[in-house]
Amino acid sequence: MSDQKSLAIAPSEAKTLFADLHAVPVIALAVSGGPDSTALMLLAARWRDSLKTKPKLVAVTVDHGLRKESKGEATAVARLARKLNVAHRTVRWNGRKPATGVQEKARAARYRLLGEAAHKAGVAFGAVHWGYATIEALRAQDCATEFVTPADLHRIAP
Predict the structure, then answer these.
(1) Which helix (H) or strand (E) holds 22?
(2) Residue 33 gets which letter from DSSP?
(3) Model pTM score
(4) Residue 151 in contact with residue 52, Cβ under 8 Å?
(5) CB 24 within 8 A of CB 124
(6) Which residue range forms the structural domain that includes residue 143?
(7) Cα-flanking dihedrals φ and ψ of residue 148, to 5°?
(8) Are 51 and 81 in contact (CB under 8 A)?
(9) Cβ neighbours, 10 Å, residue 89
(10) Is residue 88 a part of any domain in this protein?
């Protein structure tokens, strides 16, 4: 077996990872377009497609407007989401950006925007990727993805 195939997550492993969400009708996925959140969207779509009763998946991409590439990254996520039959919304952090504390304020804006988008979509749970997750970590279910409610996002957004 090649190294790449041995690292792939089997459908049974995806089913285990998402087991607690099998009865949830709508699930939001925070997808930045980076490799980890993109893998989360692909894995969630594969899991959804294996079910008899399929939840609606909604990918939400936050465009902070801090980098000129962010609009193109959001467009790429939307294109992939469409191919996977995943609804997609891009939400933008509008207005003046702070001169200091940009990361903290961008994080707060991201959580607020994700919570608002999830609420508008009728989402009960969202999958928020907190950091780098390896295939081995996913297999150990010690991954950096956490399932939260839109209200949780509002609570952690200052």
Answers:
(1) none
(2) S
(3) 0.75
(4) no
(5) yes
(6) 22-156
(7) -135, 165
(8) no
(9) 19
(10) yes
What is the side-by-side strand order in the sheet with 145-148? 87-92, 56-63, 26-30, 125-129, 145-148
Name residue, tokens 């459908």: 11
Q: How many CA atoms lie within 13 A of 47 on its CB side?
A: 24
Residue 34's domain is classified under what CATH number?
A: 3.40.50.620
pLDDT at 136 over 80: no
Q: How many domains are there within the chain?
A: 1
CA 103, 109, 110, 112 torsion-angle sign: positive
Query: 99 CB contacts (<8 Å, ≥6 apart)?
Result: none
Measured distance CA(138)–CA(145) in Å, rounded: 9
Give bridge partners of residue 30 from the DSSP assignment: 60
Can you read off the two tokens belonging to residue 69?
């590439």
- Give domain status of residue 6, yes or no: no
* pLDDT tens profile 34-71: 888 888 888 889 889 989 999 899 999 999 888 888 89
